Amino acid sequence: MVENKLSVGKISEGFVLDHIEAGKSMEIYKYLHLDKLDCCVAIIKNAKSEKMGKKDIMKIECPIDFMDMDILGFIDHNITVNIIKDEEIVDKMELHLPKEIKNVIHCKNPRCITSIEQGLDHVFVLTDKKNEVYRCKYCEEKYRGKK
Ligand SMILES: [Zn+2]
Asked: Which residues fall inside 5 Å of ion ligand 1, going by CB?
């Protein structure tokens, strides 16, 4: 299959994120704070996909309990998360919209306490699952960054 022609090598422990919408891998890189972590990351952009046309794939080598993948549910719950141990896929993680997001997105309301008080956690709560609406826990300002 064409899809698997490009291989960046096996990883012994970590995650392979598949079916990422083409171009979104850099966003995920940022959300997972991979720039600040000392793990090995391979990003494959615009891989051919029969299902999606084009897709991104990410391979992250790290201890699996080390990484919080819940945030991926917020970014795109169609991403396939393969959990790798000893170079084999041992599990697939199902992604859901997280009920709460902490310190990932920030409240834009200038009067919100998180804008005034430094060092406060930025917490958003899922208030409408159907429409994927998140609101600031403190001032209920709606998060507008997501379509
Ligand atoms: Zn707020």
From this structure: 107, 109, 112, 136, 138-139, 141
